[in-house]
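Bumping my old thread because nobody answered last time. Still need a sequence for this structure:
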């Protein structure tokens, strides 16, 4: 990384004038162990899909069946993340890690179901510790598979009705912040439902002992897609492949990955900052600065995909810009 910082200082521009792109390029060099770092060529969005039993407690007006319907929309290429991924030159893979209904497997949708949705976290643990560990392991293996297929940058995506409730629980516990400052409106709930959702989050988090093991936290209040995404981060880090995180669900998952292996987050970039209040808290704890801030709250991987061209551009600047010496410009 020192070599990358030195090269940044020699490029034909005032020091720091490319702002965050300069730090992104330095971090890419650190991940690759090379200066300049290779330009990320093949990008893929891994959309982890799972259902949440907490939907039964009334934290969202959307029915659980929407998760399955959206998986089919991803398969058909009609979702926002599909459109944005095509624009960014990225592929989309959907990982069924916990959809409640049966989902057919093909080249786009991968069947990796640990269990058909979580239990209602408002009434007790969302899953067992063994299931949480299995879901993390699934995410690691997905990262392995994607890297073996030649992808050199991974973007996170997610789909699961009720997943912002589990995200708020994870963020509140792992950052020590109260539920009221973390819980957001998700798909656009009204004030009454937000108050109920916040109470559900507060009560669930209160069951988790301070200093609990990360897998126990996941089992108590997390989602299967959170566990899978945490594993994806860990697996990518093992391969020294960068990960572009999406919004609040990815932020919660990255906090779990950080708790399991702190250095893994060094391989992550925050694609954007969601309007969900817990996301800013998660990013601050992770020490990541968002590359895009467009008031997004869709999920799916939409913000991560929008940031991919910025990550590629940061690498290109460090590699392709002239230095003052090579351009013959006096300093």
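Sorry it took so long. Here it is:
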């Amino acid at each position: 990384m020192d070599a990358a910082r030195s090269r940044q200082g020699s490029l034909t521009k005032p020091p720091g004038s490319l702002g965050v792109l300069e730090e992104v390029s330095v971090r890419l060099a650190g991940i690759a162990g090379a200066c300049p770092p290779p330009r990320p060529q093949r990008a893929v969005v891994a959309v982890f899909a799972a259902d949440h039993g907490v939907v039964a407690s009334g934290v969202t007006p959307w029915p659980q069946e929407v998760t399955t319907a959206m998986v089919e929309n991803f398969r058909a290429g009609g979702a926002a993340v599909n459109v944005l991924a095509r624009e960014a030159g990225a592929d989309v893979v959907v990982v069924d890690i916990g959809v409640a209904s049966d989902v057919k497997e093909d080249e786009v949708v991968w069947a990796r179901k640990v269990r058909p949705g979580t239990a209602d976290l408002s009434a007790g643990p969302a899953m067992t510790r063994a299931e949480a560990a299995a879901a993390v392991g699934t995410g690691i293996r997905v990262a392995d598979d994607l890297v073996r297929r030649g992808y050199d940058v991974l973007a996170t995506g997610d789909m699961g009705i009720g997943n912002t409730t589990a995200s708020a629980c994870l963020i509140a516990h792992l950052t020590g912040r109260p539920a009221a400052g973390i819980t957001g409106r998700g798909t656009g709930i009204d004030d009454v439902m937000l108050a109920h959702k916040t109470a559900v989050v507060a009560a669930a988090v209160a069951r988790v002992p301070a200093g609990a093991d990360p897998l126990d936290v996941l089992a108590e209040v997390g989602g299967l897609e959170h566990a899978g995404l945490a594993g994806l981060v860990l697996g990518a880090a093992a391969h020294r492949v960068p990960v572009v995180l999406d919004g609040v669900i990815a932020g919660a998952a990255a906090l779990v990955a950080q708790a399991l292996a702190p250095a893994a987050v060094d391989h992550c970039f925050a694609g954007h900052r969601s309007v969900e209040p817990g996301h800013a808290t998660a990013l601050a704890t992770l020490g990541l600065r968002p590359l895009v801030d467009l008031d997004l709250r869709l999920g799916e991987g939409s913000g991560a995909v929008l940031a991919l061209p910025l990550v590629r551009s940061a690498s290109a600047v460090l590699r392709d810009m002239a230095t003052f010496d090579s351009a013959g410009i006096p300093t």
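The first helix runs from residue 2 to 10. Let me know if any region looks off to you.
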